[in-house]
Amino acid sequence: MEKEGDxxxxxxxxxxxxxxxxxxxxxxxxxERLSSISSKLGIPLSRLYGLVTxxxxxxxxxxxxxxxxVCEGTACHINKSSEIKRAVNDVAGIRxxxxxxxxxxxxxxxxxxxxCALAPVLRLNKKIYSKMTYEKTKELILKLKKEAEAEVMxx
Amino acid sequence: MKHIIRVCTCTGCQAxxxxxxxEGLCRAASERKKECEEKGVEIEVKETGCIGLSETVxxxxxxxxxxxxxxxxxxxxxKIVDSVINNYVIDEMLFEIDGKKYGRLEDVPFxxxxxxVLLARCGYTTPLSLSDYTWSGGxxxxxxALDMPQDEVIEILxxxxxxxxxGAGFLTGLKWGFLKNAKGDEKFLVCNADEGDPGAFMDRSxxxxxxxxxxEGMLIGAYATGxxxxxxYIREEYPLAIDKIKTAIDILRENGxxxxxxxxxxxFDIEIRKGAGAFVCGEETALMxxxxxxxxxxxxxxPFPAERGIFGKPTNINNVKTYxxxxxxxxxxxxxxxxxxxGKSAGGTLLICLTGKIRLNGVVEVKMGTPLRKVIYDxxxxxxxxxxxxxxQTGGPSGGCIPEPLIDTEIGYETMQGLGSIIxxxxxxxxDEDDSIxxxxxxxxxFLEKESCGQCTPCREGIVQMKDLIIKIKERKATEQDxxxxxxxxxxxxxxxxxxxxxxxxxxxxxxxxxxxxxFERKISGKPVFKINGKCTGCHLxxxxxxxxxxTGNPKEKHEIIQDKCIGCGICYDVCKFKAIDKE
Lengths: 155, 584
Known about the structure:
The complex is a heterodimer of chains A (155) and B (584).
Chain A: H1 15-26, H2 31-41, H3 45-54, E1 66-71, H4 74-78, H5 82-92, E2 105-110, E3 122-124, E4 127-129, H6 134-154
Parallel strand pairs in A: 1-2
Antiparallel strand pairs in A: 1-3, 3-4
Helix pairs in contact in A: 1-2, 5-6
Chain B: E1 2-8, H1 11-15, H2 18-31, H3 33-39, E2 42-48, E3 60-63, E4 67-69, H4 77-85, E5 95-97, E6 100-102, H5 109-112, H6 130-135, H7 140-146, H8 150-160, H9 172-181, E7 188-193, H10 202-209, H11 211-225, E8 229-234, H12 239-254, E9 259-262, E10 266-274, H13 284-291, E11 315-319, H14 320-332, H15 334-339, E12 349-356, E13 362-367, H16 372-379, E14 389-394, E15 401-403, H17 413-418, E16 427-432, H18 437-451, H19 457-474, H20 480-496, H21 500-504, H22 507-515, H23 517-521, E17 530-532, H24 541-545, E18 551-552, E19 560-561, H25 571-575, E20 581-583
Parallel strand pairs in B: 1-2, 7-8, 7-11, 8-10, 12-16
Antiparallel strand pairs in B: 1-3, 3-4, 5-6, 9-10, 12-13, 14-15, 14-16, 17-20, 18-19
């Protein structure tokens, strides 16, 4: 158990913020990034690794182009968020914490998004999609697939 | 005459296109400006916070007529503007329930039966407008407080019986007294906005809709306790709330309400710290570690935060709602607040998030001591699809399940605890007869297993073992002995875990065993499991003969056995003429 309080300095306390920035801008946190923060702030790499694995927010691997976050709050759960996952699995062939082989989709569980009245919900590119069903999810993913294909064709 | 069209732009409404509606309304209003001038009508379109009726988002409110339009979409914008100019009501966009339509928001039972004081601004003021805030009584509380000695502010809070709205229900006045009396050159005030309970979103709603109220509460706290630095610890999952509170802090700084010289009386500033997706950080000592940039693992108490908190300095932590109540108490007095309480141990109203199988999902505010039944049936409109209510799950993963026969209970800290649950942060999730209590237990234990910080053994190992035992029961592999073991283990985890997460984790198990024991016992092995196979012709015979109505299906289609209801009597197996039922 870590001793409380007084050992932490104000600078060290900003480390989570730095990690959050990297996670946001780069989509994940690489080992190189961790090493550089470690030497910059003088925090052992092991402690940083402890941080990024403790908090759910951080990704340690590259994610797909679209990250589909399925809310696993209680209201979403009893309103069948499992149907969303089933649709993602059927169309994109991935389960939770997997990335599709075409690099397009990553599926993640997320703890309550606070949109319980719209349950079940998923979040994609910061937008919340409300009252999702198997069919609606399937449509959404197929649409994104088509868009991505069209983009490739244009190039 | 001036009319204001208010569009809710909270997370829920935005998810359903309220920003597009807002733009549409602005466009429509400006296109018809000339006509307005000719008719002497002035239209202003304003953003507002959440009115709480999340079921019918996006909602639009017209003032001064008070008309509420629900389930609005972008294409309705021109029509709404037209209705204001030509003074009529759009019938098909009104709120409707049980065959009755309601024009004015205040007549809708969902609102009429509430006691809205904390939510009073939500839906009426523009969240980030400082003038709206001051106009609606903002900073009156702060100014009153600054004219009193610190101790008097704390005394008023004690008299008001304001109890922590994060769940623990500790008297806020006492807590503030501890911080004021703590020795130290620097003291911290923290707002816990790490609303991690699945099924509760009122803190998000409040931060998005009335951010200045939370900040004013913190300012009063800073004055009363002598704190010089404040933190708001807010979930990363709430990007809109983070944006709003960030802007609100900037606005207050620009206007002299935050910084070295607040109204010439105190020095106080607030920083935002974002949570990174760990439920346990809602526990105050875990939160402190997280603010320090560490893993969010709870600390052993004592020392309590008021003695040694963040960076070892005296610290006070309150929930979002607790802070937001403070300006109201200072403004209106302790008596006023007490009147809105249960008349006994707790003052003030309670915010509840109604979700699950309820007809009208949303955030509601009622007096402490209101019966659950009133909240669910009179305000929430009962259940969707007319199914029977099985019970309500309150307090998130730390709470328990209250069965339908007990929903006449008045909501209060002690009453809910007496039933083996808690108010917690105020989430009320309704479940119906189709929902399995056993599955719900597994769901919560799974959640807690993932969210346990892993530091103390009873919680880390106990939760997994409880989950495994319940899965064993679900799979009909358990014995009578396993239920006894489960019960003993639950009590052990409750009594021996380090922090609130572990101590309350067995609530869901214990309350379920108390009220829904038959569901567990039905699964105890010895009785065979029956399943319907492909030979089923949908003749309906088994369905008619089943003594517990555990079989469903349409005529001439394959039927199913609802395993949670099945008592394993085997009558279906005996009556089936097509060998369509397998016995395992």
